[in-house]
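Hi everyone, sorry if this is the wrong subforum. Our group has a chain we'd like a structural model of before ordering constructs, and none of us has done structure prediction before. Sequence below.
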Amino acid sequence: MSLVNLLFGCWHKNVSFPFTTRNHRRSAAAQVTGTYVVCLDCGKEFPYDWKEMKLVSAREHSPKVTAIREPAQSLAKTA
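Answer:
Right subforum, don't worry. Here is the predicted structure as tokens:
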């Protein structure tokens, strides 16, 4: 490990070929898209979008949460 890497951390420039998992025991990175890459310098795993051919963040592929629309009066009656 170099002095620069110790001071500034890994920049994750060298990554592996994308891995696609099909089993139920997935890493956190593979749970996002099913495909992930590994940094060859530090070993950290990152979600990978095979269709876009790029690394993605977990926030980009998180399921959309829909709000439940229920009148506030009905909620007040149960309390």
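For your construct planning: The radius of gyration is 20 Å. The beta strands are 19-20, 35-38, 45-49, 54-55.
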